[in-house]
Write a structure and sequence with these properties.
The complex is a heterodimer of chains A (about 150) and B (about 425). Chain A is about 30% helix and about 35% strand. Chain A has about 150 residues and is α+β, with helices and mostly antiparallel strands. In chain A, the strands form two sheets. Chain A has a six-stranded antiparallel sheet. Chain A has a five-stranded mixed sheet with strand order 4-3-5-6-9, with no helix packed on it. In chain A, a hairpin with a 2-residue loop joins strand 7 (about 115) and strand 8 (about 120). The longest helix of chain A has about 40 residues, at about 1-45. Chain A is rod-shaped, with a radius of gyration of 27 Å. Chain B has a two-stranded antiparallel ribbon. In chain B, strand 1 (about 160-165) and strand 2 form a beta hairpin. The longest helix of chain B is centred in the last third of the chain and has 34 residues, at about 330-365. The termini of chain B are close together. Classes of the chains: A alpha+beta (about 150), B mainly alpha (about 425). The interface of A and B includes residues 6, 7, 15 and 39 of A.
């Protein structure tokens, strides 16, 4: 009788230890994953913002800005990430691409062209902080930062 | 990166502490169960040598790893110690005469693991002498076709073992590490060229170059295994080969072609081999033949059902109704005596091993060889564990492979520990 009780208690204990082992294991893995994301965030991921800065006439539009995706499409069609509401813009006008930590802009054979700092781009062109992009009458300012990915 | 590593040192859970906490919990689990087994009196004689050996291996192994490889992954070693200690305990309960032999193998395996992990040249040699090692492993497998034997001594049992003195060794187990090492080093060299070719659109011409020698070697070992009726290992090798080739090329045709080949091969094998037809038939419906050919799988299912959620308790179930339960079917015994909780524990441990193995691979961003090696080894362990756990549960047709770290069998234990040794080495070299 006594051994039966002891065996039962040992069973209970071993189940608890097993559960404890698994919990400790999962806790450690969760922690190491958190640490990994922390260190990735500390390194910083390339982050860019495109802000509308009003049209050619200087008329100020409501402040609009867009966080850029690794591949961001710009154009008049509403399927684009950045919709350029202008009659001189083509449906798909240009794309901004992130490649190996560098942002590039590419004109997608638009009818009226894409201007980068008042120069029409002929081929894929590297972008820098503060660049001005003009599509039709719309003008945009590019802000590049190394920002925490979580924000 | 500096402040990051400082924080890691200061944290409550340093690497070394994580290891010792897990080892202590594992030791407590095994000691509690050993005591329960001795009290329940189902073991032939209460034998404490296994527990003593396990504790000394854990202490010495942990100390050595702490001393030589402070930056390693701290979780791998305790988890495999937990699994192998649990396995040893289960074998002592199921087949006491086999326990002492398995203890010797455990000692040898942990020694081999430490050697591979601590000795810095091991990885380089595996890469440098890959053709020599490959030739030796293939020759050993060929030798089993000529001089192979089976420890059980039955006339028609598959003869996959080579006898050396009183011990038997299974070369197809060794081939697991050798094949992954070869594939990783060969594909690793091809990977860069392939990626460049992929950019300028000439990838199509490069795929055969990756495929040729690796497919030849893999096919050779798979054919040898099929020749010896070791179909489980053959499938395992094929799955790992496909996965590694896919990881290198990123080409979906590899997976599609592989799946098509498996379907065709399965269809042909079903009509050619009696073993395959039997396995598929009893997988589809074991009940008409529950007393004859499907006896083992039906008893295994019974063991699972009688285990329930919390199990019958160690030494209080009757897992011995499953024939040869201490080998491939050890998972059924575990399910009966520890129940669903034990099953979740074991699956959780294998999942953790796989996760850590894959993340070690991902952290090797500069060396394609190391990346593929870590990922190949962890998929090998994961696929093997899935194949036998699924087979015992009748989720997939049964294929005779061992449950890594658990099942009785020296070669399997040795090779599984060597794989973990390599993973530990790779983890301490990762960024």
């Amino acid at each position: 009788m006594n051994t039966e009780v002891a065996v039962f208690l040992l069973r209970l204990l071993s189940s608890l230890i097993l559960a404890g082992f698994l919990l400790a294991l999962f806790y450690m893995i969760w922690r190491s994953l958190v640490q990994m994301t922390d260190s990735l965030e500390a390194e910083g991921t390339p982050y860019a913002r495109l802000s509308a800065i009003g049209d050619e006439n200087g008329a100020h539009r409501p402040e609009m800005s867009f966080a850029l995706l690794p591949v961001t499409t710009l154009g008049r069609s509403s399927s684009n990430a950045v919709v350029v509401d202008d009659e001189y813009a083509s449906a798909l006008h240009a794309t901004i691409i992130l490649e190996n930590g560098q942002w590039w802009i590419e004109d997608r054979e638009s009818r009226n062209g894409t201007q980068l700092n008042d120069q029409r781009i002929q081929q894929r062109t590297a972008l820098a902080d503060g660049d001005e992009i003009r599509i039709g009458h719309r003008r945009y300012r590019l802000n590049l930062t190394k920002q925490r990915a979580s924000s | 990166m500096k402040p990051q590593s400082n924080r890691r040192e200061n944290s409550l859970f340093s690497r070394s502490r994580q290891q010792w906490l897990l080892l202590a919990l594992a030791g407590a689990f095994i000691a509690t169960n050993s005591l329960a087994l001795a009290l329940s009196g189902s073991a032939a004689q209460s034998d404490w040598s296994g527990l003593a050996l396990w504790i000394s291996c854990a202490l010495v192994g942990g100390k050595i790893l702490d001393h030589y490889l402070p930056d390693r992954d701290p979780i791998l070693f305790p988890v495999v110690m937990f699994l192998s200690g649990w396995g040893l305990l289960t074998i002592a309960r199921l087949a006491p005469p086999f326990a002492n032999r398995q203890e010797v193998w455990l000692l040898v395996s942990i020694g081999a693991m430490l050697l591979v992990a601590v000795f810095p040249q091991a990885l380089r040699w595996m890469r440098k002498y890959r053709y020599v090692i490959l030739a030796v492993a293939l020759a050993l497998m060929l030798a089993t076709i000529a001089f192979g034997s089976n420890p059980s001594g039955f006339a028609f049992a598959p003869r996959l073992w080579l006898r050396l003195g009183g011990f038997y060794f299974q070369p197809s187990e060794m081939m697991k590490v050798v094949l992954v090492a070869f594939l990783a080093s060969y594909l690793g060299e091809g990977a860069t060229a392939y990626r460049i070719a992929d950019k300028d659109g000439s990838a199509k011409a490069h795929l055969p170059r990756l495929l040729g020698p690796t497919a030849l070697i893999s096919a050779l070992s798979i054919v040898m295994l099929i020749w010896q009726r070791d179909l489980g290992a053959a499938m395992l090798f094929f799955a790992v080969f496909l996965l590694m080739l896919y990881l290198t090329s990123g080409d979906w045709r590899v997976i599609a072609g592989g799946a098509a080949m498996v379907i065709v091969a399965g269809f042909v094998a079903y009509h050619l081999f009696d073993v395959v037809r039997l396995r598929v038939d009893i997988w589809l419906n074991p009940w008409p033949e529950a007393d004859s050919r499907a006896y083992q799988i039906v008893q295994s299912l019974m063991a699972f059902s009688s285990g329930g959620v919390f199990g019958t308790g160690l030494g209080q179930g009757s897992p011995l109704y499953v024939p040869v339960v201490h080998s491939d079917f050890i998972f059924a015994a575990l399910a009966e005596e520890w129940g669903l909780l034990g099953v979740i524990g074991a699956i959780g441990c294998f999942a953790v091993l796989t996760l850590r193995g894959l993340s070690i691979g991902l952290r090797h961003s500069t060396s394609a060889f190391r990346r593929l090696f870590a990922i190949g080894l962890s998929t090998m362990l994961a696929v093997q564990a899935l194949m036998i756990m699924g087979g015992v549960l009748k989720l997939i047709p049964l294929t005779g492979v061992t449950l890594p770290f658990f099942s009785y069998g020296g070669s399997s234990l040795l090779v599984s520990f060597v794989m973990i040794g390599i993973l530990i080495r790779l983890s301490s070299e990762a960024r």
